Amino acid sequence: MSNPPEQRWVRIIPVAFIMYTIAYVDRTNISLALPYIGRDLHMDPAQQGSAFGIFFAGYMLLQIPGGYLAEWWSAKRFVSTLLVVWGACAVGCGLVHTQMQFWIMRFLLGVAEGGVWPATLILLAHWFPRGERARANAYWMLCLPAAVVVSSPLSGWILGRWGWRVMIVSEGALPFLWLLIWNWEVADHPREARWISGEEQEHLEQALHRESAELEAQPQESILRTFARPTVLLLIVIYFLMNTGNYGYQSWLPTAIKGSAKSLSNFQVGVLYALPYLITMVGMILNSQHSDRMCERRAHLALALAWGGATLMGGVLLNSISPLLSFALIALVGAGSYGGHGPFWAIPSETLPRRVAGSAMGLINAIGNLGGYFGPYVAGYLNKRTGNFVYAFGALALALLAGAALSMLLRPASGVRTT
């Protein structure tokens, strides 16, 4: 039997991890299928990029309400509701017959998934004190690269054997299965968990109450005033640039691989697409662990984004000289560009009062995720204009480097201590 303080790591994190892995698969599995969807629905590269990215226009709508409802109602019940709705929308994406229908279903899928991210961040903040939060965030957010690693070969195999419709419908039905486990295992607070020991509950409640009291001692301010804080506005811009680079890179990497090696099968493309995300997972773990150990967030975020931008730019510049070395550098991008997620999302919950932190994180995620529309669209547009991905990936690299520079303008979070 695990020691009591470890129970939350093996109960809360894995269930949330798999839940959001499914969400991430349902939003990104079209990356492998874009050439086939574009052919069947008569979309050019710019329209394909728009169809991928319109998800994020819908995604922003529930961010602030989602953070508020998770804090003041129930993160568990809110996510349960969204599991059902996004499952229906994900299946619908595989049943469309026109470009407009596909565009609309991607938008609705974004709306349905929109509240899950801030709700889960609130849930984790209810279970993990500050000194553990970057690791808790990063271990949960490993679902982002893990979704690609696990699903890409499988999706490529389904795509090659049965086509893109079967791939999207079969993967879109997964939320309905996970709903039962989510409702059985997850609790909003330690005091509500049936599996927690008295020792662990007391430890958590005391630590979280102490941290909450420190933040609530700050001068009272409205939610709108919180939204106007320089730190919140800067986090929005940084997250927009981070997502511009990440989603632009993610959405077009399979197409770029396929274009460079036309003899590869869909399964082989899926395997190559997954390799960079295995390295990404290592980078996320190491950076978040070091961030918690050093009690520091800003530099860990800035250096991670700088790593991602530099390796992507290096991969672009070496493309015509050594394609193999170019791919090796591109495989290292995510270790930085995704590796900054743990420290990044620790900042709002460590600097803002609990009563407004959920709404602020929703705002940051809502506007910042518009980069998920901007990045794929710009990359698709530049690919269409130039006929290759050199300028497209170069632009994405500049976005990550700009995010790294702006990260150093953040004020260090005070009061971060290991427990």
Task: List the topology elements.
Elements: H1 7-28, H2 30-41, H3 45-59, H4 63-93, H5 99-113, H6 116-125, H7 130-141, H8 143-162, H9 164-172, H10 174-185, H11 198-216, H12 223-227, H13 230-260, H14 266-294, H15 298-317, H16 323-331, H17 333-337, H18 341-351, H19 354-368, H20 371-386, H21 390-407
Structure, described:
There is one protein chain. The protein has 419 residues and is mainly α. The chain has a single domain (4-407), classed as Up-down Bundle (Growth Hormone, Chain: A), CATH 1.20.1250. Helices cover 80% and strands 0% of the residues. Helix 2 (30-41) crosses helix 3 (45-59), helix 2 (30-41) crosses helix 13 (230-260) and helix 13 packs parallel to helix 19. The longest helix has 31 residues, at 63-93. It starts with 6 loop residues before the first helix and ends in a 12-residue tail after the last helix. Mean pLDDT is 83; it is low at 1-5 and 415-419.
